[in-house]
Amino acid sequence: GAVVSQHPSWVICKSGTSVKIECRSLDFQATTMFWYRQFPKQSLMLMATSNEGSKATYEQGVEKDKFLINHASLTLSTLTVTSAHPEDSSFYICSALGLADYNEQFFGPGTRLTVL
Amino acid sequence: DQQVKQNSPSLSVQEGRISILNCDYTNSMFDYFLWYKKYPAEGPTFLISISSIKDKNEDGRFTVFLNKSAKHLSLHIVPSPPGDSAVYFCAASAGAQKLVFGQGTRLTINP
C-alpha cells in the first residue's frame, strides 16, 4: 500500500521558536495532503488542506499565519508552527490523498510536538 | 457541532469474542464512511470503508454496517485477538475529500 512518512517523529522546542514538520508520500504522488492535530484522548481535527502548487485551505479557527503550510512538490508538504507556545503541544498527523481511490487517505505516523 | 459521534469512549471485550463499535452521524450529506485503528503515538491505519449506496461491506475480520435512515454505522470485528486493542475512529466525508472524525472508542481485548 501507499506509504506516507513524517519527519521528525517527535520534537521538543522552546517557547517562541518555530518548528517545521515534513510529510512525504514515498511511493505515490499526492496532489492533496491534509494536516490534522490530535490532543490527548481527543479526535483528529483537520487543520488544513494542502494542494500542490497553491495556497492551503485552513479550517475555521486555525491561524494560517501561525501554521504555515507549503506543498511545493507532489511528494512533500511541510507544516511550520511559528512562534510555538506550550498550548501548541500536540500530535500532528498528515495524510495524503491516493489517486486510485478518490476517498482514501493514507496517514503518516505522526509527529509529537512538545513546547516547553 | 460534533457531526460524527462515537458515544462509547471505551469498550472491553473478551478475547475471541466479537467486538462491535458504533458510530452516529448527523450530516445527511455524508456519503462515504471509514474506520481507522490507531495505536498511541502512531498515525491511523485504515481498516474498512463503505459507500452510502451500500449497507454492508466485509473485508476479512472486519464488517461495517450502515443504516442510513438511522444515520448509524457499526464495525464488527471477529474474532478479537489482544492485538486488536487500540483506539478505533470512524470518519465520514461528503463528496469532497475532507474527513470528519469521531472522538474514538478505546477497545480493550481481555485475555
Fold topology:
The complex is a heterodimer of chains A (116) and B (111).
Chain A: E1 4-7, E2 10-13, E3 19-25, E4 32-38, E5 44-51, E6 57-58, E7 67-73, E8 76-81, E9 90-97, E10 105-107, E11 111-115
Parallel strand pairs in A: 2-11
Antiparallel strand pairs in A: 1-3, 3-8, 4-5, 4-9, 5-6, 7-8, 9-10, 9-11
Chain B: E1 4-5, E2 10-14, E3 19-25, E4 32-38, E5 45-51, E6 56-59, E7 62-67, E8 72-77, E9 86-93, E10 100-101, E11 105-110
Parallel strand pairs in B: 2-11
Antiparallel strand pairs in B: 1-3, 3-8, 4-5, 4-9, 6-7, 7-8, 9-10, 9-11
Structural class of chain B: mainly beta
What pattern of helices and strands is seen along the backbone of chain B?
A: EEEEEEEEEEE
Radius of gyration of chain B: 13 Å
> Which range best describes the helical content of chain A: under 10%, 10-25%, 25-40%, 40-55%, 55-70% or over 70%?
under 10%
End-to-end separation of chain B in angstroms reads 38 Å
Quickly list its features:
heterodimer, A: 116 residues, 7-stranded mixed beta sheet, 4-stranded antiparallel beta sheet, 11 strands, B: 111 residues, mainly beta
Short description:
With 116 residues, chain A is mainly beta. Chain A has no helices and eleven strands.
Describe it for me?
The complex is a heterodimer of chains A (116) and B (111). Chain A is mainly beta. Chain A has no helices and eleven strands. In chain A, strands 2, 4, 5, 6, 9, 10 and 11 form a seven-stranded mixed sheet that branches. Chain A has a four-stranded antiparallel sheet with strand order 1-3-8-7, with no helix packed on it. Chain A is globular and about 40 Å long. The model of chain A has no long low-confidence stretch (mean pLDDT 90). Chain B is mainly beta and 111 residues long. Chain B is 0% helix and 54% strand. Chain B has no helices and eleven strands. Chain B has strands spanning 4-5, 10-14, 19-25, 32-38, 45-51, 56-59, 62-67, 72-77, 86-93, 100-101, 105-110.
